[in-house]
Design a protein that fits this description.
Blueprint: E1 6-7, H1 9-14, E2 19-23, H2 27-31, E3 39-40, H3 46-59, E4 61-65, H4 70-81, E5 86-89, H5 92-98, H6 115-136, H7 141-157, H8 161-166, H9 181-189
Parallel strand pairs: 1-5, 2-3, 2-4, 4-5
Helix pairs in contact: 3-9, 6-7
């Protein structure tokens, strides 16, 4: 039986050594601060990591983490479909840090906005651009319609194509000194 129950930051911190902590944010977000000991497996790369995560879950419980809990909950759903048990951190790294707990930050890593905030900025900017351009070129309003429709689809399916696209931008990629996914997957297999 699989589950995707959640733990509060206090509950997770009390048992942190029991978990293999997996941060499913974009590498740039992860590098800007993560739960101590967390390994980075971005949500969009989760399918290729399933064998390694299955191996790690056989040795102990997986705790999935993101910025707010939305992506880690989605990760738990994906893992559940592969018959892998996992828990999620309620409120993500934001709640962890808000609860007075420290985040590991690699030296020299810059702060990156959480993906949800990046999506809100991009979507809002595109909607406004479509409306403003629509004053001169009425067909440009379709940009706003497209973005609004995409947001509705995103909410209904609990997926986000814009987040997937934004995660490919250079500022959301891991610093050159960070471990790549293959290194992380090898660590999970041990």
């Amino acid at each position: 039986m699989t589950s995707h129950a959640s733990l509060s930051p206090a509950q997770a911190a009390a048992r942190l050594e029991e978990f293999t902590v997996i941060d499913v944010r974009a590498p740039g977000e992860y590098a800007s601060g993560h739960v101590p000991g967390a390994l980075n497996v971005p949500l969009d790369r989760l399918p290729e990591a399933l064998p390694a995560l299955k191996s790690a879950s056989a040795r102990g419980t997986l705790l999935m983490v993101c910025a707010s809990g939305v992506r880690s909950t989605r990760a738990c759903e994906v893992l559940s479909g592969a018959d892998i048990d996992a828990l999620t951190l309620t409120g993500g790294t934001s709640a962890w840090e808000g609860d007075g707990r420290g985040l590991d930050r690699p030296e020299g890593a810059g702060a990156v906005w959480p993906m949800e905030r990046q999506v809100r900025l991009a979507a809002g900017s595109l909607v406004v651009a479509g409306l403003v351009a629509g004053l001169r070129f009425p067909a440009a309003r379709w940009l706003s319609v497209g973005i609004g429709s995409g947001l509705v689809f995103s909410a209904l399916t609990n997926t986000c194509g814009m987040a997937a696209a934004l995660s490919k931008l250079p500022h959301n990629r891991a610093p050159r000194t960070a471990a790549d996914l293959n290194t992380t997957l090898e660590a999970l297999q041990k």
